[in-house]
């Protein structure tokens, strides 16, 4: 089937005239791309190109993955011939563009962002104190360079780039460590030490870079076995020679990006181990991320509708009047949520307020629905920082009202603690 995908592209270059469509057509018919400027009403927003990509796919469900390669080829060519930045911002729709379909067409429509991306409220005096404490150590240039590549890897949003940056950090640490022992070369099949028939011995030599890296990994990660080492080396060799994780996905665990987390955790341990051990006699705090991979929540609707064509016979993918949004009942917040304890009677009143119309209703429903703990007499509920700020402000301003009176009873004596839930 033929499909058309509607992308928004971040770009440093624009079409010389708003409203003009340009076209890139693959000579073998693999894809056809049409692009034009996205006209902005507010010029404080980033400039985007609209790109419509026509291609063939086995089904609409497969189309998103199939479109990846022609999109990359198209953007790579634009970068090559202009020297400007072009990168995917987001996908809006993929439509079944089979010419013979009359009437309604099937399509996938991606929802707009939920509007806010909250940070992790984890910074406290223990974290800043640990950073300050470690700065007492005179950080050598090699460790400083390794920390730089670790930081760049954490900040990157592309898994292949993250892996390579982490590997740079690991290699810097490993090569800088002087080895006091010579090592054997290993048999590529059974991994046992090679034996010289002439000399009647196992030859020894100072470790090569690859062997130093293996030694470092095994020293900081006691659970790293031969299988994991080979997997890391395979990923490294593939990526350093221009490949992608997708090309070796059958040799990687699911999801294939997990290899990035595996290496990231090893590099973290290797970095920490470069500091003098006597520094760790004091109480310090390191946070442990659940993943280094940058993930984005998105919603996709499978729907059928009429897709009009323009004067040139091309599909009009503006979908004016049709929107798909992801809606959350969680307000944006940057501080930790609060654990608020109330009596069962007070919780009953809170529940009743969540059914009573007013500007308080959504907040009360949100709080009542997030019970963290309870016993025979009391209930502990999680209150988001944004809601708690509203409650605290109402109490301080001595506002009158049913919900204000309830929370005045509950938190009037500061019966609350931050960080109690999420």
Q: Roughly what fraction of the amino acids lie in strands?
A: 15-25%
Helix content: 25-40%
How does the overall form come out from the CA principal axes? flat
Q: How many angstroms separate the termini? A: 45 Å
Helix and strand element order: EEEEHHEEHHHEEHHHEEHHEEHHE
In DSSP terms, counting alpha (H) and pi (I) runs of 4 or more, how many helices? 12
CA-atom Rg in angstroms: 29 Å
- By secondary-structure content and strand pairing, the structural class works out as alpha+beta
Largest beta sheet: what is the strand line-up?
2-3-4-1-5-6-9
Round the mean pLDDT to the nearest integer and report it. Answer: 89
How many DSSP E strands? 13
Characterise this structure.
This protein has 422 residues and is an alpha+beta fold. It has a seven-stranded antiparallel sheet with strand order 2-3-4-1-5-6-9. A four-stranded antiparallel sheet has the order 11-12-10-13. Strand 2 and strand 3 form a beta hairpin. Helix 4 packs antiparallel against helix 8 and helix 9 packs antiparallel against helix 12.
Give a quick rundown of the structure.
The chain is α+β, with helices and mostly antiparallel strands. It is built from 12 helices and 13 strands.
Question: What keyword list fits this structure?
Answer:
flat; alpha+beta; seven-stranded antiparallel sheet; 35% helix; 12 helices; 422 residues; four-stranded antiparallel sheet
Topology (elements, then pairings):
Elements: E1 2-11, E2 22-25, E3 32-37, E4 48-56, H1 60-66, H2 68-82, E5 86-96, E6 105-110, H3 125-134, H4 141-155, H5 159-176, E7 183-184, E8 204-205, H6 209-220, H7 226-240, H8 258-272, E9 300-305, E10 338-343, H9 344-353, H10 361-368, E11 371-374, E12 378-383, H11 385-396, H12 402-411, E13 416-418
Antiparallel strand pairs: 1-4, 1-5, 2-3, 3-4, 5-6, 6-9, 7-8, 10-12, 10-13, 11-12
Helix pairs in contact: 4-5, 4-8, 5-6, 5-7, 5-8, 9-10, 9-12, 11-12
């Amino acid at each position: 089937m033929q499909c058309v995908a509607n992308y928004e592209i971040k770009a440093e270059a624009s079409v010389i005239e708003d409203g003009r469509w340009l076209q890139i057509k693959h000579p073998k018919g693999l894809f056809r791309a049409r692009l034009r400027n996205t006209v902005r009403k507010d010029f404080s927003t980033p400039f985007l190109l609209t790109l419509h990509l026509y291609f063939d796919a086995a089904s609409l469900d497969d189309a998103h993955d199939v479109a990846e390669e022609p999109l990359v080829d198209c953007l790579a060519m634009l970068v090559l011939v202009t020297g400007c930045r072009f990168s995917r911002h987001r996908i809006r729709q993929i439509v079944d563009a089979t010419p013979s379909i009359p009437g309604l067409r099937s399509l996938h429509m991606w929802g707009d962002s939920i509007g806010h991306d909250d940070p992790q409220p984890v910074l406290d005096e223990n974290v800043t104190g640990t950073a300050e404490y470690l700065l007492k150590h005179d950080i050598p240039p090699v460790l400083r360079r390794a920390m730089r590549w670790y930081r760049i890897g954490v900040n990157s949003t592309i898994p292949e780039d993250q892996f390579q940056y982490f590997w740079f950090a690991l290699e810097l640490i490993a090569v800088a460590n002087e080895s006091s022992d010579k090592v054997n070369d290993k048999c590529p099949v059974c991994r046992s030490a090679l034996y010289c028939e002439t000399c009647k011995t196992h030859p020894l030599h100072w470790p090569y870079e690859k062997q130093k890296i293996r030694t470092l990994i095994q020293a900081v990660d006691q659970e790293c076995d031969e299988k994991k080492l080979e997997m890391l080396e395979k990923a490294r060799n593939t990526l350093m020679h221009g490949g992608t994780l997708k090309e070796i996905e059958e040799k990687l665990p699911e999801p294939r990006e997990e290899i990035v987390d595996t290496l990231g955790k090893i590099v973290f341990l290797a970095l920490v181990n470069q500091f003098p051990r006597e520094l760790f006699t004091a109480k310090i705090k390191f946070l442990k991320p659940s993943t280094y991979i940058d993930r984005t929540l998105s919603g996709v609707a499978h729907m059928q509708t009429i897709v009009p064509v323009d004067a040139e016979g091309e599909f009009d993918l503006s979908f004016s009047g049709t929107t798909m949004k992801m809606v959350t009942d969680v307000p944006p917040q940057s501080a930790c949520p609060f654990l608020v304890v109330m009596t069962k009677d007070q919780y009953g009143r809170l529940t009743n307020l969540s059914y009573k119309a007013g500007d308080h209703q959504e907040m009360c429903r949100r709080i009542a629905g997030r019970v963290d703990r309870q016993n025979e007499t009391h209930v502990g509920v999680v209150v988001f920082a944004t809601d708690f700020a509203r409650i605290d402000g109402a109490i301080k301003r001595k506002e009158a009202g049913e919900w204000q009176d309830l929370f005045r009873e509950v938190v009037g004596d500061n019966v609350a603690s931050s960080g109690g839930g999420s």
